[in-house]
Amino acid sequence: MTKKLILASSSPRRQELLNQVRIPFTIRKPNIDESQIITRDPVKKVRQLAILKGRSVTIKHNDEVILSADTVVSYNQNIFEKPKNKEDAYQMISALSGDVHEVFTGVLIRSLNQEIIFVERTEVEFWPLSEEETVQYIATKEPYDKAGAYGIQSVGAIFVKQISGDYYNVVGLPISRAVRELRGFSVYPENDKNPF
Fold it and tell me: What are the catalytic residues (predicted)?
């Protein structure tokens, strides 16, 4: 029996990725206090936040499967989450300029009788950025709802020299691994004939 996916996230990027691979889902936003996760270890942080989000959402029927995720940028042992303001965004982009940083996404998938948690890591290298590029970018709306103050899938792509790892992990969900893990929960992409 194919099960129904519940996305415990309000992230438009995660919604777009699930739509891209034709997995139908319903959104059920978690209501949590993220400030209770105080670790400065990026792997522990995304893992704990994914768990907190995913377990805060109620499974209402036994054919439902919850997926939750959290993404952070890590640079020089500092976690870069969503910037609070222009100054914060400027500091983040300036720090990442000309250097390599890591992006971590923690994912929780759970049903009534099964649960898995995994963390995906991607390395991203930025070109050296001019003051003008940084100032122009933070003047847009783009940085303020994204970990690390940039979106690799939009204008922030011009900063990226190279990546090592899953591109979609940087967008906010390592979709190919998520799809493979969801198969074990009987959640599949829609297909005209059979799920693959």
Answer: 70 (proton acceptor)
Q: Tell me, yes or no, whether 189 lies in a domain.
A: no
**What pLDDT is stored for residue 193 in this prediction?**
45
Q: Which amino acid is at 10?
A: S
pLDDT 10s digits, 152-196: 999 999 999 999 999 999 999 999 999 999 999 999 998 744 554
Is 193 a domain residue? Answer: no
Question: Rounded to whole angstroms, how far apart are CA atoms 148 and 175?
Answer: 20
Does residue 113 contact residue 182 with C-beta atoms inside 8 Å? no
Owning domain of residue 100: 4-183
70 is catalytic: yes
Q: Nearest-CA neighbor of 142 among 160, 156, 126?
A: 156
Instruction: Give me the number of domains the chain comprises.
Output: 1
Catalytic residue among 63, 70, 145, 192: 70
